[in-house]
Amino acid sequence: MTDDEDREVLALLDDEYARRILIAASEEPMSVDRLTERCDASPPTIYRRIERLADQGFLDEYQEHDPDGHHYKTYSTRLERVAIEIAEGSMEMDVYRRDEDPADRFTRLFEDL
After folding, report:
1. This protein's superkingdom (predicted)?
2. H-run or E-run covering 43
3. Does the predicted model carry a pTM greater than 0.85?
């Protein structure tokens, strides 16, 4: 990772709402409405954090359908671990993400058409 990417990841993980989203969505996929309730934040705050988390590959996005025929997105945490090593005057950061199940990926790609 570049220094700019390292800074972005650290800044994102320093954000309380981003951490709340990651923790909540690690239990089960959640909609923005559920994340708003669980994280005690406004929808715009949740949407902004989701965008930043997704840009880093920390969230998976799924299209869901309710019984009324409407559709909405749910989000699941993909971030598994961040490891930081400081030694000999330098810092190295490794980000570990869960692999996406091929069937889930196919479904997501099909639903996005």
Report:
1. Archaea
2. helix 43-55
3. no
Q: Is the pLDDT of residue 113 over 80?
A: no
Cα separation of 97 and 76, whole Å? 12
Answer for the pair 46, 35: CB distance below 8 angstroms, yes or no.
yes
State residue 39's pLDDT score.
95
pLDDT of residue 84: 92
Amino acid at 53: L
Say if strands 79-87 and 59-65 run parallel, antiparallel, or are unpaired. unpaired
CA dihedral sign of residues 9, 108, 21, 40: positive
Q: Which residues pair with 10 in a beta bridge?
A: none
Max intra-chain CA distance, the chain: 59
